[in-house]
Amino acid sequence: MAMGKWTHRVYLYYRSILLAGCALAMWGCNGDTTNISALSASSGSKSPLNPLMLQQFATPLPIIPAATADTTSVAGSDYYVVKAQQSADYDFGLRNIDGGELKNPYTGKPVRSTVWGYSVNGLSAGYLGPTIEARSTLDTSGRKVVVKYINDLRDAAGNLLTKHLLYVDPTLDGTNNGEPEIRIVPHLHGGHTQSGFDGNPLYWFTNNPNAPANGMGGPAGNTVTYTYDNDQLGTTLWYHDHAMGITRLNVYAGLAAFYILRDNYEDSLNLPKGNYEIPLVIQDKSFYEDGSIAYPTTPLLDPYTHLPIVDANGKPVLSSLPEFFGNTIAVNGKVWPKLEVEPRRYRFRLLNGSDSRFYNLWIELPDGSPLPAGMITQIGNEGGLLPTPATVGDTEDHGILLALAERADLIIDFSKVPVGTKITMRNNANGPYPDGNPPDPKTTGKIMQFTVTKPLSGTDTSAATASRPHAPLAAADNVRVVDLQELRDIFGINYDPAGEGTLFYRHLLLLNGNLFTDPITEKPVLNTVEDWIIVNGTVDMHPMHLHLVSFEVVEKGTLTGYIPAALGLPPRYAALNKDTDPAGRTPLDPEFDRNYTVTGNEIGLKDTVKVPPGGLDPNGDPDPNNRGYVRIRAKFDRLGIYMWHCHILSHEDNDMMRPFEVVAP
Ligand SMILES: [Cu+2]
User: How far is the centre of ligand 1, averaged over its atoms, from the C-alpha of 439 (Å)?
Assistant: First the structure.
């Protein structure tokens, strides 16, 4: 059948008849989607690059530079011009296992990659972008930041791009209405930002300076100027693209960068700084043999005839997949890098900037011996410094579980090991998390390496730890129950991980049973505190992010007797069982599943929370007595429309995002 423009009515029709959970043969919920058949489905004749051929821990870790603010153009504010640009010859550090250049089989030249990235006040690395450093306006020394974003995506000849770097699935909300492929709208993740400057996904703009506004709130032309008030505590934020239906593609292409907010209190703590304070963004990537970045798709089949769906030109329409799992690990844009360090303390600001991959991170000595006590400490998360530092990351069983968009602020003390020691950052989180495939210990089970080889440049007087007291929010004025669902989409897709040609349904991920475009249902009143009980009936953990607010994670656990919103009734439950895992164990039980309790590095303020998964009954159906939940608490202190969504980017682009609106009393 030829594909026209799909309307929401089509979705709604199928939604009403196909209410099925992920567990009912939804392969996407329990399979690593990076495999050769999926890659080749979208690549024609290009072969995937085998990660086992690649050298590890030889390429130096890039130290992401901070951009220089223009302090005069906008009175009282720091001003930046940020351009989204394409770069044709980016080097991810892909080398043969013996260190030699990998050659592009088509050109004979060393492999390089075409990527996107941000240039900031003229500074660019090609992929990702320089850090914007800002000062909290809660201190009198603070300053606002004004950013003029320009969509300057052009080819090497300077012509405006019209095709995306990656295949754009034309059947999603945000892509199914003839939208241009080259669209961006930036969002400052974790920012306490005015609604109009928050990067609403519908407020996208193209690279055409003469384009009319899109009619949904986006600006005319190829540029927009946002003000960030910085009226929040110092922490690690990041800015990344958020355009409707293509967020996963724009971020994967490279549109993401750090935004570090500092404040006087943190300055007074004498934490490692300068060369000893290093942001690290971890991302999984896949490549083809010619170095181009790979992002798998799969052909769409008509759900009734099982014939390929074709576009108006007769070409097969390809579908996005439920998740993306790359087969290499890049840190700051280099694959498996190494960092030479001095025998002293360093501060690392970690960000999971991947599409779907969770990381459970720990650092490991070459002989596997236990780490010296106090060598690694987590001092902060998304909301800044923790009220009490957390000891994590020292063993495999005690890792730092970093979901998509979460941050971990770490102190690592390299003086505790002999000079010459090689220390590897490892990962063992399954993909999807928690019940998917384990990472390969030879590839995705490794992140980067530290070698203690640099001479100590001076006595280390920096603090070994830090904390900030947290004043709890007032009790909630209102409690809301919201739920997460994996349903069947209208499209059937043929996906064949085992080579057996099995037909599966594509999934549709909804919040409260609503599409993104359905009327707004979450409307907190200005300056009230709300508890959101986020219920998860799926077998996957979903990292849920709310724009605008920093929230407390009050409790996690399981619940009983749940009625999901997708049945057309208000969501409700019989009982919340705080700090229990699905087997009914309590936190002191050695077998207790830590996904069902609030861990030490989730105290304080966060902007993204891991929602524990539900389970199945003996028939394999979603079990209403076996669902996970988290209760978060936030004060909604700015008027206007914001987003709440899953930060698995492939889920966000598959409708796991909804607006909320803070309304006047
Ligand atoms: Cu999700």
Answer: 19
Query: Helix, strand, or coil here: 601?
Result: helix
H or E segment and range at residue 41: helix 36-43
How far, in Å, is the centroid of ligand 1 from the Cα of 213?
A: 31
Paired with 553 in beta bridges are 632
Give residue 645 CA to ligand 1 midpoint distance, Å: 8
**Cα-to-centroid distance, 394 and ligand 1 (Å):** 28
Task: Give residue 3's pLDDT band: very low, low, confident or very high (50, 70, 90).
Answer: very low
Kindly give the distance from the C-alpha atom of residue 613 to the centroid of ligand 1, in angstroms, as a whole number: 10
Backbone angles phi, psi at 600, to 5 degrees: -60, -25
pTM above 0.85, yes or no: yes
Measured in Å, residue 579 CA sits from the centre of ligand 1 at: 22
Please report the pLDDT score of residue 449 as a whole number. Answer: 98
Instruction: Quote the ligand 1 centre to 393 CA distance (angstroms).
Output: 25
Token pair listed for 548: 């605008």
Burial 172-205 (b: 16+ CB within 10 A, else e): bbbbbeebbbbbbbbbbbbbbbeeebbbbbbbbb
Neighbours of 646 (CB within 10 A): 28
| 235-241-246-252 Cα dihedral, nearest 10 degrees | -70
Contact 651, 29 (CB under 8 A): no
> Contact at 8 Å (CB) between 42 and 318?
yes
C-alpha 454 – ligand 1 centre gap (Å): 42
Distance 188 CA to ligand 1 centre (A): 20
How many whole angstroms from 29 Cα to the centroid of ligand 1?
A: 10
- Asked which of 16-25, 238-247, 397-406, 555-564 is least confident by mean pLDDT, the reply is 16-25
Say how many Å lie between the CA of residue 349 and the centre of ligand 1: 24
Query: 176-182 long-range CB contacts below 8 Å, 24 or more apart?
Result: 176/5, 176/6, 176/245, 177/5, 178/5, 179/204, 179/214, 179/244, 179/245, 180/206, 181/246, 182/151, 182/153, 182/206, 182/207
Nearest to 217 by CA among 571, 640, 528, 527: 640
Whole-number Å distance, alpha carbon 305 to ligand 1 midpoint, is: 30
- Alpha carbon distance 487, 510 (integer Å): 7
Question: What is the b/e burial string over 557-579, where b = at least 16 CB atoms within 10 angstroms of the residue's CB?
Answer: bbbeebbbbbeeeebebeebbbb
Rounded distance from Cα 333 to ligand 1 centre (Å): 25
- The alpha carbon of 517 and the centre of ligand 1 are apart by a number of angstroms equal to 18
Rounded to the nearest 5 degrees, what angle is found at the Cα of 500, between the Cα atoms of 499 and 506? 95
Average pLDDT of span 291-313: 86
CA-closest candidate to residue 468, choices 282, 234, 260:
234
Alpha helices in 258-364 (DSSP H): 264-267
| pLDDT digits 0-9 by tens, 326-381 | 999 999 999 999 999 999 999 999 999 999 999 999 999 999 899 999 999 999 99
CA count, 13 A, side-chain hemisphere, 133: 13
654 alpha carbon – ligand 1 mean position (Å):
9
- Give residue 652 CA to ligand 1 midpoint distance, Å: 7
